[in-house]
Specification:
SH3 type barrels, 5-stranded antiparallel β-sheet, 1 helix
């Protein structure tokens, strides 16, 4: 079903990580590339993501599957 490489990346997601949506989600008003923060882990592969505007006001909170997320890094990481 999922590759071992993908599952290993999924295990790296944790609270307060910054993530980007990898697919359009029109039912939530989100498009691929929008950035949010993990605020809760609902199950091993489902996370509550908070999306905020430039002023820090939340405009959407939605549960998303790890497969719909890209973990963003702001400092160097080893490959």
């Amino acid at each position: 079903m999922y590759s071992s490489e993908w599952l290993a990346r999924m295990d790296d997601l944790k609270l307060l990580d910054v993530v980007a949506v990898t697919v359009d989600l029109p039912e939530h008003g989100l498009v691929r590339g929008q950035v949010g923060t993990i605020v809760e882990q609902l199950s091993p592969d489902v996370f509550e993501i908070e999306f905020s505007d430039d002023d820090g006001r939340t405009y959407m909170m939605v549960p998303l599957h790890a497969a719909q997320l890209l973990h963003l890094h702001y400092s160097p990481v080893s490959a």
